[in-house]
Amino acid sequence: MTEVERHNYDVVVIGAGGAGLRAVIEARQRGLSVAVVCKSLFGKAHTVMAEGGCAASMGNANSHDNWQVHFRDTMRGGKFLNNWRMAELHAKEAPDRVWELETYGALFDRTPDGRISQRNFGGHTYPRLAHVGDRTGLELIRTMQQKIVSLQQEDYRRYGDYEAKLRVFAECTVTELIKEDGHIAGAFGYWRESGRFVLFETPAVVLATGGIGKSFKVTSNSWEYTGDGHALALRAGAGLINMEFVQFHPTGMVWPPSVKGILVTEGVRGDGGVLKNAEGERFMFRYIPDVFKGQYADSEEEADRWYSDQEGNRRTPDLLPRDEVARAINTEVKEGRGSEHGGMFLDIASRLPTEEIRKRLPSMYHQFRELADVDITAEPMEVGPTCHYVMGGIEVDPDTAAATVPGIFAAGECSGGMHGSNRLGGNSLSDLLVFGRRAGLGAAEYVESLGARPSVPDAEVTAAAKRALAPFDGPEDGTSAENPYTLHTELQQTMNELVGIIRKADEIEKAIDKLAEIRSRIRGVTVEGNRQYNPGWHLAVDLRNMLLVSECVARAALRRTESRGGHTRDDYPQLDAQWRNRLLVCQTTGDEPVPEVDVEAREQQPMRADLLELFELSELEKYYTEDELAGHPERTA
Ligand code: FAD
């Protein structure tokens, strides 16, 4: 049998971003033994790249803020397709999770009277994002790592071993989840450096692997966003929901080509930056959609007054939810009002003094200086949409984060439901904290409730090793050798061009055909060299996951014949109330080397009456069907 290093833990958390770390802390605090596995270095995750802040209705910058307003904003941002229970838990618990971070040592920026400062972001009624300049994610990760070290020090005092209850396995990629009798029994992977195999025997895994951005050519995401958790869950029998909803952030860098897609934080607009087209027009006033009419300023004067007086004025449409702004930029460029390199201009230079820009947006200042030779205190930035976030993910129980397969839990970007069809900026960091904690707790309670633990069948380990090593075996009979880098480029181009920001049936169908071709060629993927640090092999393994999640995105995008949030159909440009309550659930059948994807439509649970009453009937009428609203108290009164 293949040589495999073995470990045994109560809970194995896969992913060391914000969601994973928060889950680790919770499970360890419940007294369980926990491993955290990450394929990057410990501390390098998308969470560390988060710039703008973490949304929580603490009411520090505007005392009118509360969980109900945050809940309403989140549901509106997601165009009422969100799992309302998740949105409720998130809005209620986010402030406690932020305050708790302070007890771990986080140092947020402060208001003049010493409270945590909160900044404006798109779609949030009040300034709500707790932040540390434009490096908030770094502080989140730093703080939770510090908490983990302090827990390990406690373990050292008690057991004489720092890793007695909590161990970090960095640069270790999980490739398979292993089950026995339908229950999770373990996770299998390899050390990136040595290529040697490792098996975690465990009854519970928390998937916290982040998103899928590396399936697209232009993206703000980095190399580890290959949809691994999504694919692991699918292959283990769990379902993915909302996969058609992919967020294109309106402001990525567009020039020079080597940095295309890198994020320009929404904090630039939150702090006063405005979007202009090549004619110098602040075009966003022309793009306020009907569902948001009346909620946003319709003149530059009112929009500008709003920055200093939010009670008497409506917010600027530069801060509409991301899907609206990205579509507007796309249209302006298409209609010939784009910048030299095909973007729009984002101007903070003429809006804030130099020192203020450098103080509030230090990373943006350096990013543009170093990468584009642009001084953002003197000139506008050129920006355009970039694939940023996936709203779709593993279907979970809102309260426990349990997936439908016993022993799988999921939190953070790889889980689905919370953000509906479009996530508001800042709502990811808070999501990680709220549902990371709940996933750690859910996994701990599940493990405590088990009688006997499932054991890992040897045959499954052998099969997992064989699958991982297949790219070294050369092409299967009847296929020609394929280079993983070539296939990855073709996959990214297909997704970007045919299932990108604006979609239509014939293009999505073309994409599905191309994905089928890649699926047949993937059998031939061949890598050279040996198992020691071999990036070509790592990509070959990741490619199967990217192909699988891309198929989910494309197939669900074809099924949803309406436009909503992060899914825009040129051939079905309107919201369709009949679709609001329908989830598309992706599942797989078969196995080798990439299983087939099936998509099924399913109805969501209707929103609880006390939550529904938080909205004006006139607003609900823009989203709901007449039948759904027939029982509304205002209708029956
Ligand atoms: P991540 O933080 O990405 O962590 C994923 C982890 O999983 C990593 O440790 C990775 O190594 C590991 N992993 C993946 N696959 C495997 C595998 N097979 N085996 C082992 N380990 C694996 N959101 C906000 O709310 N506010 C912001 O200001 C903000 N700014 C952003 C700026 C940028 C540039 C980007 C890219 C995103 C931003 N976001 C922001 C979004 C937010 O940062 C992410 O959605 C969030 O951090 C995801 O956290 P996570 O814990 O789910 O995953």
From TrEMBL:
Its cofactor is FAD. The keyword Oxidoreductase applies. It is an enzyme of class 1 (oxidoreductase). Gene3D superfamilies: FAD/NAD(P)-binding domain, Fumarate reductase/succinate dehydrogenase flavoprotein-like, C-terminal domain, Succinate dehydrogenase/fumarate reductase flavoprotein, catalytic domain. SUPFAM superfamilies: FAD/NAD(P)-binding domain (SSF51905), Succinate dehydrogenase/fumarate reductase flavoprotein C-terminal domain (SSF46977), Succinate dehydrogenase/fumarate reductase flavoprotein, catalytic domain (SSF56425). GO terms for molecular function: steroid dehydrogenase activity, acting on the CH-CH group of donors; succinate dehydrogenase (quinone) activity. Residues 304-321 have a biased composition (Basic and acidic residues). Keywords: FAD, Flavoprotein, Oxidoreductase. The active site is at R322. This is Succinate dehydrogenase / fumarate reductase flavoprotein subunit. It comes from Prauserella sediminis.
